[in-house]
Each structure stands twice: as structure tokens, then as C-alpha cells.
User: What shape does this take?
Amino acid sequence: MNQKIKTKLPLFICLIVCFTGYALAQVETETPIADYTFETIEVEGVDFLEVAASNDFGDYAGNTRSPDGEKTIGFTLIDGVFTTYDFPGSLNTFFYALDNAGKAAGHYKDIDGDYHGVILEDGELQRYDFPGAAETHIYGLSDETGALSGNIVDAAGVTHAFSGELIITFPGAVNTYGDFVNAAGAVVGSYIDADGKPHGFIRNPDGSFTTIDLPEMPNLKFLFVNTITDFGLIGFRAKAVNDILRSYLLLPDGILYEVRRPGSVSTVVRNVNQDGSIIGYYDLTDGRRYGFVGRPATPLYTKKFGNIFSMHLSKGLNLLSVPLKPTVQMTARSLAVKTGATVVVMFDAANQRFVGWTPNAPDDGFPIGGAKGYIANLPESRAIVFTGTKWTNQTQVAAAPVAMPLDQTWAFVVSGYLGGTQHFNGYLVRIRNTRTNTVMTTRVRRNYFAAATADLNYRGVVEVGDRLELTVTDTHGNAASEKFNFIVNPMNLENAVLNVTLDGIGTPKQNLLLPNYPNPFNPETWIPYRLSEGGQVSMSIYDAKGRLIRTLSLGYQSAGFYQDQGRAAYWDGRNGFGEPVASGIYFYQLTTPSFQQTRRMLILK
Assistant: This one.
């Protein structure tokens, strides 16, 4: 994946440098107004709604006034539900970022006038301070990596941009302000030079910088670059002395456009989506502030933003392909983030098996390519927009959303983690549906596993009430777990996944002597057992009259499963003198310092 990214970055960097340089030549003439249609975002009873962020699913976050009008507080508008948030003890709370999982981020001002980052997750506000920083301002939250971006203030009072763990300082700048990072790793923001003049910047993925200026506005009070799409479309705002605040779009074809909502005093663009639609807010003459969504007025106009493909995915299971080659290599994780999928499944043609991935995986999963079909399960129907370039020398698999009744599913994933401090990489997880007797297997990586099955004829592979039996074997094929049993419930079916945690891998719950195999036997047999704790172990063989025939001294054995031929106790059917014993019933007895158990076996000659 890294090699593919590297081959794309030089083109992406060149694109930014080239169109930025070209745009500077355009602003010497009157800047054209972008041709957009606007829809107002408003909440009943709220006359100050500063929409600052959106996600791919039509949810919003931003800022509003407290009920008493004395302070600014954050809000989210998710699935039509408006909720406000005020960090305890703060003077003001601001939200400027929102991801597809509904997590919001921003910052708050404490009673001493200092700023700290704030993250909203699962309805709870959490403070975030960048390590070593005196103040933290969050403006961005990456869907691809989860990394935060924004500004920090150091102990000397100097402002720097940050993205993830990276601190960014524009060369020679007095202060550097960061805002957003795209999938390619390009960070946008602004800086103040030694003469006190504001400029915009792009920190390209290779570490170089590109400056964004407005020569036609020499007396700028500020210039803030706050968004960049994966295709390279930039959104920023600026204000000159004795002028109103203005917002701009810098397109990949090198043309600069001003964005202005008709009838507004000022228009602020806070976010640009991959399809060229914009999110922000506008002010009216009476002081009211409203959010807006702006969409390119005509389909022809959207071509200026690059190749775009819109796709509607149904609630439940969908079979789809990625219609355009993205700027950065897409993975199972980025596809799940884009679609909101609970699972992503691919078919591994080389090994003739399905491979599953779930959002709780420790990695980004398999790469997403062209001319391949993928299965994604969505909790809600959604319209998805893909941007990028055309795939070359590949025939695309048509996107084919397929809906199924809620009491069955034609694709299913069992995923989870093996509990414990031990590393279980390479262990094999086997899942058997006791109703259908079908089996899924998968290898463990970083203690995580995801086994998948599917029927591309869209016949159900699992039903509510099915019992799934899970077992784990180690890298040598030896048993490493008890049998786990799980029952499929309606929620599992709806999400097309059963998430589990398998505890006690490698350590049985109790000592146990198991039936020997084969039985009856001639002349040899294996005697399996389990130890819940380590100790000296011996296996004694007795005849039907209770006379000791032979003792197998197994020495010190650590806790574990001794069930396979490589680990079980072995008896060759001979007594202590090396003589073959006669046919008949014999007893074998497992003895440890704290446990003893006896079972019966039969030799037939």
C-alpha cells in the first residue's frame, strides 16, 4: 500500500503547486461568484446556528448560543436530533469537527482564558491537551486515521499547527495555524509572517509548503484556509480592512471563486465535501446566523471538482464495487468509514475463501481495488459519493445493492479478540454452524480474527437462533481452547456480524481427563487431558483387577490443552517390562498435585 501511495503523491503535490500558482494570476481580475444553490439549516427556536462541520451522512456540528445568550456552546445535529454541549466550568465551548461515527471535536475556554481541546464521544465530553502544549485548539478530525488537527500554543506563547502527533511550523512564520488534513496527508492552515501579514498554506505530504495569497486584497486582516478535499479543492475565508468577510473556493483547474449566499451580510464556508458541496453559515442584517448546505447548481458544474460517482446503498447487505480510483489507496477501513458499514467482506480468489473485516479490527484491513466486488452491510440506506480517476485496464463490477429479509442474511462475519496477555498470531479459529454444519476458518492477527461466509446467490447463510461453535488451535494444530458456543440473535443478523471475546485461550477452566483415542485400540493409543495449572503429571495404567501395569511419568507440565497426538500422553500397549499386554479392559489415571481422575479403555487384538 505504501508504494502505491508514493506513486500518487508526486502527482498530487504537483497538482496543488500548479493550480495554486495559477490561481494567483486569476485574482487580479474580478473574482467570479460560484454557481451554487443554497439550503438553509435551521432549528426551531434557534436564531444563532453556526454550522462548522458535517459528515458523509448529512449530520452537522457547530456552535450556538446558550439559553441565556451569555456564552457560546457546541451542538450536534445528528439524524435530525439537535443536542447542545457545554464543557463543565468553561466560558465557551466550540465544535469544529465531526466524523462519520458521530464523534465531534473542538475546544473550550476555561475560566483562566486558556483553551483546551474537547472531544465528544458516546455523548460524553472529554478534555484533550496536546502533549507539552500550553493550549490546544482542535479544528479537524480525520475519518481515515482518527487523527486530530488544529493549533497548539507552546510555553513561549508561539502558535503552531498540528496534525496527529506532528507539529507544523511554517518556515519564518511568527505563528502557524492548522485546520484540516485530507486523505493524502495534505494539511491546510494559515500563518503570520515577520511583517504581521496573513497567508494561507498547504503542507504537502512530502513536507514542502505552498503559500496561498490574495494579491487583490493587500490589506488583509486575516486569511484562514480551513478545508481541502482529496481531489485538491480548497476552501478558505479572508477579510480585508474596511471590507466584509468573504469565502473562496480554489478549484483544481486553477480558478478562484467567491462563495456568497444571496441576501446574506457575510458567508462563511467551513467544509467542502468530495462532491463539491459546501457547508457553513451566513449572517443576516438583523444579526441572526444560520447554517447552510450549498450544492453546485448544474451537473456540468460539478465536473470542475473532478470525477464524481454517486451511488445509493440500501439498508442491509450490498454488493458493490468502487467506481473510481481514489487519490489515496482505499482500504476496508476507509470503505467502512465512507459507507458506515458494520462489516466489509471480499472474496480471496487465490485461496477461494471470503475474508471479513470489522471496524474494531486493529488494522485497516485489505486494500480496495478496481474490478472487484465487495460486500458491505449498512445500518441505514445512504447515498455515497466517490471521487477519483478512472480505473485503467480494468472492467468494473457493477454496484448491485441487494436487500434481504431481516430474519436471514446471505453474508455473515464472526469476529473478535482472543483475550489474555499472550500473543496468538497465527492461531486458527474455526466456527461451525451446528444447524447447517458449514464451517468458517480464519487466522488470528494481533489477537484479532474475522471469519466470513457468503452466498452470492443471495441465499441465507445464517438464521436467528443458530448456534455457532467456536474452537481455537495453535500454530501447530494443537487445541488451544474449550468449545465456545454463541447463539445468533436479531441484532447480529441486522449487523451481519457476531462480535465476541474468547477468554482463557491456552488455559483450560479446569483439569480434565478425556477419552483416549482410538478406543478400542491395538496396539497404541493417545490419552488427552487438560491442565488448569502447571505441575508434575503422571499417567498410570491399571488392569481390570486394579493391578498397576505401567506408569507414564510426564514430568512438569504447564497449564494447557494436551489433546493432540503431539501433546497427549502416549501408550504403546506394553507393561513396565516392555511386554505387550493382553486384550481386555484397562484403566488409566491422571495424577497431578491437586487432581486425580480415572477413565476406562479397551484393547482388542
